[in-house]
Amino acid sequence: MERQEDFSQGVVRFFLLPAKYSSHLPPHALSSLLGQQNTRRVLMATGSRERIAVAMSGGVDSSTVAAWLVAQGHEVIGLSMQLWSQTAPGGTARGSCCAIDDRQDARRVAELLGIPFYVINLEEAFSSAVIADFIATYAAGKTPNPCVRCNQSLKFVHLLAKAQALEATALATGHYAVIRPTATGKPGLWRGRDPAKDQSYFLFATPLTQLANLHFPLGELTKEQTRALARQFGLHNAGKHESQDLCFVPDGDYQTFFKGHAPELLVEGEIIDLDGRVRGRHRGVGCYTIGQRHGLGIAAAYPLFVIAIDPSHRRLIVGPAEALYKDRLEVTDINWLVHRPPDARQPVAVKIRYAGVPQPAIIEPLGDPNRVVVRFAEPQRAVTPGQACVFYAADQVLGGGWIL
User: Fold this and answer.
1) What whole-number distance in Å separates Cα of residue 390 and Cα of residue 307?
2) Which of 47, 58, 52, 108 is nearest to 81 (CA)?
3) Is 301 part of a structural domain of the chain?
4) Which domain holds residue 30?
5) Which one-letter DSSP state was computed for residue 124?
6) Are residues 245 and 394 in the same domain?
7) Predicted confidence (pLDDT) per residue in 117-163, tens digit
8) Structural domains of the chain, count
9) Domain presence at residue 14
């Protein structure tokens, strides 16, 4: 049975589902999967019964979160986002984030668990907050990070608002990160226990005031432990592969996307070297990023890489690998996740890309809490304007911003 509700942001489809799922995983089963220390931490963190909304993408992570909270006795509500029209040019493809088959997987899990499930139409908000930023960032000669923007502008704003409208005490997600009290007693953000899955980099833009309303139950687990839990809960997607592509760029086909939404990013231009000599032609600035080598179509005595992008003249500047290294960068639009941002030089560890290893650096305030200079202990390769730069003190996330 299906009922439609009219909310302030789009149409929400509410599915009334049978209560088929009542299995509570016993503590001894948790211990065998997670170890005694993690089991104690998990069970102690779930005191009284709460109404908790879960952002369900259809993947194994968010599905396991929903099942785990049900098993702990909480009243769980499933929320899924409709972000990109299936009839838009290119649509969405299997294997991309938030594709239609993912929502079908989410609904199947909700049916198993016997929980209400809402699909929230956020296409308009997604277009204005994520798609528009994606295009504008490329047009400025930078490389965007739409996953951070989606968390920042949709999941932890609109989706959290829907959870609160449904009188949920918190929104839980499948992110691998940890929220715990700081020395002041207020919540802070830490890296996930599994270095290979830690997603704190994508969460730096979450407003500090929102951390108290969020739960990341998987933060203390490894991916293997999550899949083991999913199998214990009988979830059909326990072995599901991770989504790789952007929901609005299926199969990673940026040219097709730009052809339909920003053809100006496919206008050809010159490729010049560091001495100003023309070395060839490119296919449009939207097809390139800093550090890229393939697709340049240039014959040279040594490998050439994209060193910089000049959007005003539609030029790519290329050079040798050693020209990619920089020992400093500037960060703007910083979101601090500590209650007192640094007002003096401070040693930190810095990540300038999700898959990168945190690197030792010094951050220097510029008199404006929204901007700092980062000076690396060792020069870093392919510092990319438009990407996120996140600051850590050991495993705690201090904050982060966008590379200029």
Assistant:
1) 22
2) 58
3) yes
4) 2-174+217-251
5) H
6) no
7) 999 999 999 999 999 999 999 999 999 999 999 999 999 999 999 99
8) 3
9) yes
